[in-house]
Amino acid sequence: PLTMASDSPESLMRLCTDYCLRNLEGTLCYLLDNQTLRLHPDIFLPSEICDKLVNEYVELVKTDSIFEPHESFFTLFSDPRSTRLARIHLREQIVQDQDLEAIRKQDLVELYLTNCEKLTAKSLQTLVSFSHTLISLSLFGCCNIFYEEENPGGCEDDCLVNPTRQVLVKDFTFEGFSRLRFLNLGRLMEGVNVESLLRPLASLAALDLSGIQLGDVGFLTQWKDTLVSLVLYNMDLSEEHIQAITQLHKLRHLDISRDHLSSYYKFKLTRRVLTLFVEHLANLSSLDISGHTMLENCTIPSMEEKMGQTSIEPAKSSIAPFRGLKRPLQFLGLFETSLCRLTHIPAYKVSGDKNEEQVLNAIEAYTEHRPEITSRAINLLFDIARIERCSQLLRALQLVITALKCHKDDKNIQVTGSAALFYLTNSEYRTEQSVRLRRQVIQVVLNGMEAYQEVTVQRNCCLTLCNFSIPEELEFQYRRVNELLLSILNQSRQDESIQRIAVHLCNALVCQVDNDHKEAVGKMGFVMTMLKLIQKKLADKTCDQVMEFSWSALWNITDETPDNCEMFLNYSGMKLFLECLKEFPEKQELHRNMLGLLGNVAEVRELRPQLMTAQFIGVFSNLLESKADGIEVSYNACGVLSHIMFDGPEAWSICEPQREEVVKRMWAAIQSWDINSRRNINYRSFEPILRLLPQGISPVSQHWATWALYNLVSVYSDKYCPLLIKEGGIPLLKDMIKMASARQETKEMA
């Protein structure tokens, strides 16, 4: 089943390719004079490997923000004696004229250039180098490839301002491209004479003229015996176009679809036109008429339409002209037409907006070259995922991921895609998703967050991340996700809801992770960012989730991480603590989080002198009597003081309050707690508590530590008994029982 297939690991080929591309210097190449990549002289690679290296490189540059492109990458493939290229797919800004120039000696069979806007007419000349071998060529969206720079004769005034201007190349044709069969000229710039450009091609099999307006397509009939696929998406048609198309009797795939929002089209589809297609194009197996308005009713009477089981048999077709088909079509594009809602449609695959299957077919068919249509189809999928249950979850997820990767810079797709991902990754679908698939989701979500500072995308992406187990599932992108969240929180103007989600995620990310992770995040400015948020909330006199989460995050990130504790003190953390305490005396959650954090600070011996002021000690002593959040605030205040007492009377550098008085209040507090209290705290290690046992300088600290251990192993024995044994607590307790300085009640508890 599909569920298992997607869990298989990446192929060894893919892993090796990826590794080599990320470590070119350490594997295939060396650096010449510290800047130019050169292939090691003993390396010889066949096209099966070179094609993958180039295509994967383009994919990495496009979808992985950490991956650094190399200026001289394409020069590695300049010599066919050591590296062979045959089939390559290049996209967008990644490719420039000099890159194609670098590989001109290769015998390319297939070259797809998609939306490569930086290519100019220089690359047209380079294409001629491949003319004797090229079978398949796409120049889709390469909108400058027919322009060259021309220096105006004689330097006039504007010579300095605009030394070059763009001129259209008129004399280029596909003369000499004797093997060329498949050609995509989609979105070609206006002014190029398509007819004379194509005339030299002897036997075209597939032609894509998407988005080009041609008044006369009669010249297409010169390939009536060879053309099997014709795409005229968004071309305004006329009766003459239809006449020419019906003469192309070998056609198997015909696409005359359009984006009904893009501009006004005079042409309307009629029953007669569809009938002509069926009668004249006997081999037709795929037809796309999406976005068309039907001038007349092509459907059979509704009584007959509703009868019987849904059928794809042409004889039962609800669309009358298709009753003449000899067999059902493999594909029928009916997206954004009324026909897709009929009962009997004679095709195995239909794109439309009637149900999940049709919508997924639309996303699949249009993602590559039609983002404007795809974003509307994904929007329909979003509604399905939100309101009903998706029955083809894996397919839906894969398609949305592909669309988001393919159109990283298309705002509409990023908005609708990120919203759909939120619903497709929520808990009810969890069991159907593999680790690999969920990682792909995380990658595209982070790409979206990086590329778009736009509120909707950021919110959707943050919400989607909340569907994952944190930190476990985000571990493989730990640094990147933290950097992104911190950059969101550091923006001067912030959306309240995004701020709340981002702080929640930050908190979850530093909870229960290794100390080196916490240190790394601390160095990114985590502590500073949280304190700034707290400062802002204080100024507004608001204690909301953001305030509580920020203190909670600081509590987590300072746990057993002295560097972060020091940062907290250096950035006026104690001042904020006192101000929050004063401003929000009733907020129990807040008090607990703040004191938990100060407990972490107090565990660091070098930092304790900074807590030794009359003001701080007075505040901690008063909090011993607090009943906030059960025993938690009182317990944490006592913990802070226990570490301070452990430094002995000579470290007590203040006159008021006196050490003995505070000790007395600590004993009273501990005796007032219920030993069976359920706790709102999570210990990863007992080390900071255990170090208070083998000492005689502060019996009250010893007692607090023993009480803490006794409470935790009694109430949560399954979790904490093994931890106590593992960390060597038993011999420490036994030794303490023999100590003369320990109090009797402490020994009994031990």
UniProtKB/TrEMBL annotation:
ATP-binding keyword on record: no
UniProt keywords, alphabetically: Acetylation, Leucine-rich repeat, Repeat, Ubl conjugation pathway
Domain of life per record: Eukaryota
Domain annotation Protein zer-1 homolog-like C-terminal: ranges: 404-750
Residue intervals of the Zer-1-like leucine-rich repeats region domain: 196-337
GO cellular component, one term: Cul2-RING ubiquitin ligase complex
Keyword Transport belongs to the record: no
Family matches, as InterPro entries: ARM-like, ARM-type_fold, Armadillo, LRR_dom_sf, LRR_Zer-1, ZER1-like_C, Zyg-11_UBL_adapter
UniProt family annotation: Belongs to the zyg-11 family.
PANTHER family, per database record: PROTEIN ZER-1 HOMOLOG, PTHR12904
Subunit structure: Interacts with the ELOC-ELOB/Elongin BC complex. Part of an E3 ubiquitin ligase complex including ZER1, CUL2 and Elongin BC.
The protein, known as: Protein zer-1 homolog
Organism: Ramphastos sulfuratus
